[in-house]
Amino acid sequence: MKKEMKKAWEGRFTEDTDRLVEEFTASVSFDKRLYRYDIMGSIAHCKMLGRCGILSEEETQKIVKGLERIEKEIEKGEFEFDIGLEDIHMNIERRLIDLIGDLGGKLHTGRSRNDQVALDIRLYLRDEIEEIIRCIRELKRSIIRLAKKNIDTIMPGYTHLQRAQPVLLSHHLLAYFEMLDRDEERYNDSLKRINVMPLGSAALAGTSLPIDQDYVATLLNFPKVTTNSIDSVSDRDFIIEFCAGASILMMHLSRLSEELILWSSSEFNFIEIGESFCTGSSIMPQKKNPDVPELVRGKTGRIYGNLFSLLTMMKSLPLAYNRDMQEDKISLFDTVDTVKDSLSIYSRLLKEVKVNKEELLKSASKGFTTATDMADYLVEKGLPFREAHKIVGEVVRYCINNNNKGFDELTLQEIKGFSDLFEEDIFRYITVENSINRKRSKGGTSKNEVLKRIAEIE
């Protein structure tokens, strides 16, 4: 009686694999989440084999029905995964043979696990990117809602984390919209390189069997087929590109996190994050901690680590497939899950942010934030900007040396001591409201420009 084959490659070996080696090399514990795509690809491959006469119509139907049954078993939690079979591909194939006999072994005709996994990941990532783009759009909508709600809210704009010029909070929030817009563009662009069908490359050299890769591509909605079989099975650029895009996206969310953390502190007191998105302290009863932004900020480092893990793994690999590449999925899956979770929770958190408009205006009015406007006033009177800059710098120094006076506390006589060009209208000119309304350059912080951008977006 023929011994039951447990390994796809058992014919070459006379000894069983050490159990520790099986556990060390198995990937089914994490790649089983690809089951739907593995079955989808196998059904398309099977139909192609039938179309090309490699399988009969009856054989094709039996295999397809067997694969559909396996998918239902996995979805119902009735499927038993065996680490001795290494990966999701062999677990499904073994179950198919159990269901329909040796005919199940014909499914692997004309393909290798090398091109099979390349196909599975592309199918998986294509769907996940569509979901991530949906999450990005939902967060963008949350930002727009918060911006419209605060269209008249004035805040201090910062450079070097020092008060710089007054801006609208809505304008500041829309900066994050622009970042997310670029993230969405990057992911849409990456689909061009993900959406390429590699099946038929086999182990690395292609196959001598009369297969039809274009037909498989049509069934799986791929616009084109890969053009080099060696590259097809060893290419992980599209995963690295996805993780690079994720790193940029998480960097954007981390910057937003940092500002929400600062703004919700008692030192700033600009905003209050809803209690349902905060936690307390086990020892300090008064604490209300912004844990969600802190965790997003922390998870960003992990996403960077996933990117560098992939780059390091691939940097010295000779062509074509190497077992090292099995590790790509751990980094990829973690990145996908973290990005989706971070986007989703921020879409909800922003709905629970309360803005302290009075404190923002008060802060925007301090720190000589309209100093540049004062210089612009002198420029409009005909003074070269560099000279105007110097004069206003002297005014600021005078204010600091006189009990840190504000511009609005100066008398006309005091201010004319620095330049005869100053007139009574200077005090209206340098209010934070007028400062903002005059920033009418395209993309500026004036209310009209912000409303124009919101209208363009909507």
Q: How would you characterize this protein structure?
A:
Helix 6 packs parallel to helix 12 and helix 7 (169-194) runs antiparallel to helix 10 (237-263). The radius of gyration is 31 Å and the shape is elongated. It has 458 residues and is mainly α. The chain has 3 domains: 10-109, Orthogonal Bundle (Fumarase C, Chain B, domain 1); 114-198 and 227-362, Up-down Bundle (Fumarase C, Chain A, domain 2), CATH 1.20.200.10; 367-432, Fumarase/aspartase (C-terminal domain) (Ribonucleotide Reductase Protein R1, domain 1), CATH 1.10.40.30. Strands 1-2 form a two-stranded antiparallel sheet. It has a two-stranded parallel sheet with strand order 3-4. The longest helix is centred in the N-terminal third of the chain and has 37 residues, at 113-149. 59% of the residues lie in helices and 5% in strands. The relative contact order is 0.10. A hairpin with a 2-residue loop joins strand 1 (154-159) and strand 2 (162-168). The chain has 19 helices and 6 strands.
Keywords:
single chain, 458 residues, mainly alpha, Fumarase C, Chain B, domain 1, Fumarase C, Chain A, domain 2, Ribonucleotide Reductase Protein R1, domain 1, 3 domains, 19 helices
